[in-house]
Every structure is written in C-alpha cells, then in structure tokens.
Amino acid sequence: MKPYKTVRLIWTFYRSFVLVSMVITICSIKLLWDYDFMIFGMLFWFKVATLGLVFYFVNSYKSNHYYYYQNLGVSRAMLWAATLGFDLFLFIFLTVLAYKIR
User: Fold this and answer.
1) pLDDT at residue 19 in the model
2) Which residue, of 12, 31, 58, 89, has the fewest CB within 10 Å?
3) In sequence order, what DSSP letters do the residues of 63-95 get, joined into one string?
4) pLDDT digits over 19-37, tens only?
C-alpha cells in the first residue's frame, strides 16, 4: 500500500476523536501557561490517562469498524500506535512551544 494512503486512513481514524484530544491539549496548555512548568508532570499523566480513556471508549463502541481498516491493509495496532503517538508528540510539542513563548 502506498504511504499516503496509509496516512489518509490513519487520519480518517484519528478524526473520530481529534476534537476531544485537542480540547484536552488546549486546556492543559492553558493550565501550564497559568501555573508555570512545575505542573507539567501532572498534565502529562493527565494526558496519558485521557488517551487511555479515549482508547477504551473508542474500542467499546466501534469494535466493528476495524474491519474497514484491516481490509485496506492497516492493522489495529498501527492505527492506535500512530494516532496515540502523534497525539502525545503534538501535546509535548505544543506544551514546549507555549512554555518558550511565555
């Protein structure tokens, strides 16, 4: 499968929970902005916990939609690794960027 098709499929999967993830990231950055960098550890673990909750809820109500991605050559593990990895990277990148701007 061509790489851009895989990226499009992963983006299609990620769109199902990107809004929730971005709201949590923006709220965390706002808290970091207000309370300085000493709160980063707590915000990081809060983000990891919310990613775990997203994983649980998406798996609990959309268990049949994985067949679509599997038929197109993208495994469940690849979907979750790519989306959760990207989301955590984006959180850390935006957090560091906000701290540097501050």
Assistant:
1) 95
2) 89
3) STTHHHHHHTT--HHHHHHHHHHHHHHHHHHHH
4) 999 999 999 999 998 998 8
Q: How far is Cα 102 from Cα 86, in angstroms, rounded to an integer?
A: 24
Give burial (CB, 10 Å; 0-12/13-18/19+) of 86: middle
**The model scores a pTM over 0.70:** yes
CB 75 within 8 A of CB 83: no
Q: Answer positive or negative: Cα dihedral of 14, 17, 18, 21.
A: negative
Contact between 51 and 88 (Cβ < 8 Å): yes
